[in-house]
Automatic annotation (TrEMBL):
Encoding gene per record: cmoB
SUPFAM superfamilies: S-adenosyl-L-methionine-dependent methyltransferases
InterPro entries, A to Z: CmoB, Mo5U34_MeTrfas-like, SAM-dependent_MTases_sf
EC number(s) recorded for this UniProt protein: 2.5.1.-
Residues annotated to bind carboxy-S-adenosyl-L-methionine: K90, W104, K109, G129, D151, P152, T153, I180, E181, M195, Y199, R314
Entry keyword set: Transferase, tRNA processing
Catalytic activity: carboxy-S-adenosyl-L-methionine + 5-hydroxyuridine(34) in tRNA = 5-carboxymethoxyuridine(34) in tRNA + S-adenosyl-L-homocysteine + H(+)
HAMAP family named among the record's database cross-references: tRNA_carboxymethyltr_CmoB (MF_01590)
Protein's name according to its UniProt entry: tRNA U34 carboxymethyltransferase
The family this protein is said to belong to: Belongs to the class I-like SAM-binding methyltransferase superfamily. CmoB family.
Length: 321
């Protein structure tokens, strides 16, 4: 089982120390009611070898090479273990000569977002709904002091810890298996990211308030989410599924989303990027057994989902507390 005590020691002398009043009990409760596959997934981490890392690159990729090249047998054993953690959704990872070709080219999103951000150097960062942590490592590569990701999914935690082990147990990033609604208002993070989460929330204004409560005064929110075309009153509420997903609740226009953020009390709210998700950015790979974007779109008209809604378009909104 994954040991969170090193993280407790890390934050004990930081402005996150107040979190220790609630976090250890929450994680103890989480570990007492784990996902049925959690024990199997966590053993994968134990099976992975300790490799001497050199040439770690988190600036332009998530990449590490070994001091000594792996034999074909060693490489195939590591691939076998990592594939026990499928599906791999966010990536890609280049680890000791092994290429984990994930469903999402998450580096595309990072390239769109990074030029618009305040410098991440020496910042305390929270990544809400971080998945397996790909973007957290890129934040570390930009010089972040500490990156904390939260995501309640046990598989993503085990993927993250597997990558961490192959990155020489780098502890500048940590994944905590909780949702944002379980966090006390810490007001301690210089930057808060919420990417690919907003449309899964039943109460979008509550989510925006929860994000605001984690920021320091003057801190920056980075909100990346699905949007539709339209004016300040345009919001899509799918009747059943959107792109085959059941848990999609609100997809606003950019103007509506900016209005909501300002209503919550954010300032300097602006949209810095809008892009339609391409079949090059989200696609099937050997590291994914499930369907992907091509299966979610109308085969006769890729501008629509299979249900007839506008195809996925994503916006990046920045705002300050």
């Amino acid at each position: 089982m994954i040991d969170f005590r090193p993280f407790y020691k890390q934050i004990a002398t930081t402005n996150l120390s107040a979190w220790l009043e609630t976090l250890p009990l929450q994680l103890k409760q989480w570990q007492q009611q784990p996902h049925g596959e959690y024990e199997k997934w966590s053993k994968v981490i134990d099976f992975l070898p300790h490799l001497q890392a050199e040439h770690v690159n988190l600036k332009t990729a998530v990449m590490v090479n070994s001091t000594n090249s792996l034999s074909d047998g060693e490489r195939q054993r590591i691939i076998y273990h990592l594939k026990q953690l499928m599906p791999w959704r966010k990536g890609p990872y280049h680890l000791h000569g092994i290429h984990i070709d994930c469903e999402w080219r998450s580096d595309f999103k990072w390239q769109r977002i990074l030029p618009h951000l305040s410098s991440l150097k020496d910042r305390m960062i929270l990544d809400v709904g971080c998945g397996n942590g790909y973007h957290m490592w890129r934040m570390v590569g930009e010089g972040a002091k500490m990156v904390v990701g939260i995501d309640p999914t046990a598989l993503f935690l085990c993927q993250f810890e597997a990558v961490r082990k192959l990155l020489n147990n780098d502890r500048r990033a940590n994944l905590i298996p909780l949702g944002i609604e379980e966090m006390q208002p810490l007001g301690a993070f210089d930057t808060v990211f919420s990417m690919g989460v907003f449309y899964h929330r039943k109460s979008p204004l509550d989510h925006l308030s929860q994000l605001k409560n984690q920021l320091t005064k003057g801190g920056e929110l980075v909100l990346e989410t699905l949007v539709i075309d339209g004016d300040v009153n345009s919001v899509l509420v799918p009747t059943d599924r959107y792109a085959k997903m059941k848990n999609i609740y609100f997809i606003p226009s950019v103007a509506a989303l900016i209005n909501w953020l300002e209503k919550i009390g954010f300032r300097n709210v602006r949209c810095v990027d809008v892009s339609t998700t391409s079949l090059h950015e989200q696609r099937k790979t050997d590291w994914l057994e499930n369907e992907s974007l091509v299966d979610f779109l109308d085969p006769q008209d890729n501008s629509k989902t299979i249900e007839g809604y506008p195809a996925p378009k994503r916006a990046v909104i920045l705002a300050e507390k």
